[in-house]
Amino acid sequence: MSMIRRFLLLVVIAAVCATSAVADAPVRGITLSTHGNGRDWGDDSIEPTLDRIAATGATWVAIHPYAWIANDGEVQFQDLDKNSTHLTRPIREAHQRGMKVFIKPHLGYWASKFSWRGEISFDDNTQWDLFFDSYNQWITQLAAATAEADGFCVGTELDATLAHEDAWRSVISSVRASTPAPLSYAANWSDYRHVPFWDALDVIGVQAYFPLSDKVDPDQALLRTGWRKVVSELSGFATELDRYVVFTELGYDRSHVAASRPWEARSDGDATAALQARCLRVALEVVEEEPRIIGAFLWKWFPEPHAVGRNFPLAVPAVLEVLREVWKPELDSR
Question: Please, are residues 161 and 178 in contact by the beta-carbon 8 Å criterion?
């Protein structure tokens, strides 16, 4: 057997093993966001923060390191290495608490012409080349710097770039050479069927902001009906590809439109706390019931002492009660 064929066989075997491994235990994950471009992940506050997250029954934590997109396509970032404390410390601290870590890179777009990262697209090949060259540099540095993590996402909501399949496959190959972690891509809920390279990844990632009901204040039965339709379609899709699904984001704001427009950051106050908790409870219960969906990363939690941000709060009493009740079996088995 030639060296090239031997290498390709090893890549295939590794991918198959990684795909099997992701289904071994449920992903009960919480996304740890940041008050300061991720630097607070390296502070001493990471210890009490992870203690509180672990107390919910979470088995995974996700962090979302940032780079920034310029209008001409350049991805701008600070050089990274294995001494990047804000990346390595949360991995070490989570592992000490028995939790795994998912690295989910985000491209910041706030000073650019793009209104969100799903809009990132360019008019000519020069800009596309600059984008993928600089993105590949960033993402492989990040993968190498976080090689002790347990999962890695090669991209988040960059769905206007998906037609450039060869470029994405090159990125995935570079990331595979930089980290042993199983790989995913975080597709927007409306676009997961349009990703042409799921076969090159270990698990299908979906930003799970699916609209469930237009009814004001829907009850659990109506929410469950909406979710079961979504889950049936996802399960069929994943089965065809011989993959599992993880919800790379799942969350609800305290909002009157939490069930109809769950992606919308809109805080309507305490009057909608019950709807937020109800939506989350049904979503988590449905995830626990579906074998093809291995779990979810909830959006979002912040480092202590300000665990609740402006929207999508998790560290609030109603949500914490839901998490403890749905995830309690995991607490009992530790």
Answer: no
Going from the N-terminus, what domains does the chain have, and what CATH number goes with each? 24-333 (3.20.20.80)
pTM for this prediction: 0.91
CA nearest neighbour of 267 among 316, 321, 219: 316
Mean pLDDT by 10 residues, the chain (334 residues): 38 45 79 93 97 97 97 94 88 98 97 95 96 98 97 97 98 98 98 98 98 95 97 97 98 97 93 97 96 98 96 97 84 44
For 71, other C-beta atoms within 10 Å of its C-beta total 11
**Edge-to-edge strand ranges of the sheet holding 75-76:** 75-76, 66-69, 106-108
Pairing of strands 293-301, 245-250: parallel
Tokens of 71: 């209008």
Secondary structure, 3-state, the chain: CCHHHHHHHHHHHHHHHHHHHCCCCCEEEEEECCCCCCHHHHCCCHHHHHHHHHHCCCCEEEECCEEEECCCCCEECCCCCCCCHHHHHHHHHHHHCCCEEEECCEEECCCCCCCCHHHCCCCCHHHHHHHHHHHHHHHHHHHHHCCCCCEEEEEECCHHHCCCHHHHHHHHHHHHCCCCCCEEEEEECCCHHHCCCHHHCCEEEEECCCCCCCCCCCCHHHHHHHHHHHHHHHHHHHHHHCCCEEEEEECCCCCCCCCCCCCCCCCCCHHHHHHHHHHHHHHHHHHHHCCCEEEEEEEEECCCCCCCCCCCCCCCHHHHHHHHHHHHHHHHHC
Q: How many CA atoms lie within 13 A of 8 on its CB side?
A: 5
